[in-house]
Amino acid sequence: MMAQAHMAYRDRSWTPQPDAEAALRNWLAEGLARNTEAAAFAGRLMEGTAIRLRDLVDHVSFASESRVAELEAAGWAQAEPGVWRNGTGLFPPHVRGDSDIFWLRVESVEQFLSANGLSARIEGERLASLRRALAFPGQGAGVGVIERNGSAAFRPDADDAAERREAGIVLQRFRARRRQFDTVEQGLAHTEALVDSAVAALGPHRACALWLMAERDYWQLRCAAGRVQKARQDALGVGWANIDHHTYDSSRAHYRHTIRILEKLGYELREMLYAGDMAGWGSQVLEQPAIGSTIFADVDLAPHEVDLDFAHEVLPKLERHRRAGILCALHGESILEQGLNHVACFYDQKTLRAQLASLGFGTMAPFSDMPHLYQELTHGDWAPVDPDRVDRLEAEGHLPPEEAERIRRDGAIITHLENIERNDGYKGFNKPGIDGVLRKLDPRRYAELVDPAGAR
Fold first, then answer.
1. Terminal CA-to-CA distance of the chain, rounded, Å?
2. 3-state class of 373 per DSSP?
3. Rounded to whole angstroms, what are the CA distances from 289 to 50, 177, 302?
4. What is the pLDDT of residues 388-424, one digit of tens each?
5. CA 154 to CA 222: how far, in whole Å?
6. What residue ranges of the chain have pLDDT lower than 50?
7. Which of 112, 142, 413, 432 is the least buried, fewest Cβ under 10 Å from its Cβ?
8. Four-CA torsion 430, 230, 188, 289, nearest 10 degrees
9. Where are the domains of the chain?
10. What is the model's pTM?
11. Could you tell me if 124 and 130 are in contact, meaning their C-beta atoms sit under 8 angstroms apart?
């Protein structure tokens, strides 16, 4: 039974859905044509952050009965009373309501209203599971903003002050959590206990939303491009509302424990990727369906292990570390002191690349360049490495002497921001392209591509 389930997620594939995408863009264009304030905001958003308004649409409320036939013709189906979904790709649900409203994801409703000089009424208190406000009423279709803190609902629930207080405490525990320990086992046990406590108090979905918020805070401390881009997105009031996925690295010895912690936060196995025998790397893609979050959990893999449920089975030591193993040996586990390897966000890829270049941030060659999927990484940030760790890796044969000496002297690559553009609702990834990018991100080869002094 386990093998059948494993094959089901391992073989999952996605295809572009141009008809559904065309219908969604047409509905959005019609709505903006009747809402000049929202259209002006869309222009400011592109100019200031390179984010397309379409990539922020959380869901659509509609009142016209004629929309049902249009939805069903374009691939949406009624999944529950009054809610139509399209599971063939990244498409927002449509919900029957009293008026036509496009609801946009934002990280903070207050921040959005303040940044855009608006005074709309906010439904839901701070740290409630869901909050929203009608930002641009317009003459036809309205545009609202919605802040999700672990809720998959479309309307705010009844207020629970005690739960909101607990959410604030959990967030601070996650933000302040200890990340360095005498052993990795101690660190993972401590982290799992924090997650268990949060899930018991708030449930997995709210705990997961708070976990990701704290993880991004830690990642930004190490990623200069991430800090600058977050400030630009905050200036328009959207924050990190445009995230496609987060990426963790794990050593083979501690991969199962990392996956177990993520599963307690509500993540489910979705599909796997394998970079190829030469790269020796694979990733379990996990999805948290209630909050729509995706995680790449990267680990060194031998060729025969792609046929195993490697997320849950014991992975014995390999003779030599590959990319993920080297990174964890240098910087520690991603879920502990290393932090997220990178965060991938939706953008108009050409516009973001030009904007980042004007701010002094370069990008590596794209590893996906197709009409429906474009992916590239900023030149990575470097971090110092404890020379004792380098000594051990060299002594064990994982690093040649010249590479070991360079890392002792200069440190090693640790993190990036990913520029990703998706079209036609494409939800998958470029599996052949993974091999190329992971070779570039290996700390043992990255110095050949980027000068450490210029990448800082």
1. 49
2. strand
3. 27, 26, 29
4. 999 999 999 999 999 999 999 999 999 999 999 999 9
5. 35
6. 1-9, 449, 451-456
7. 432
8. -50
9. 19-148, 224-455
10. 0.92
11. yes
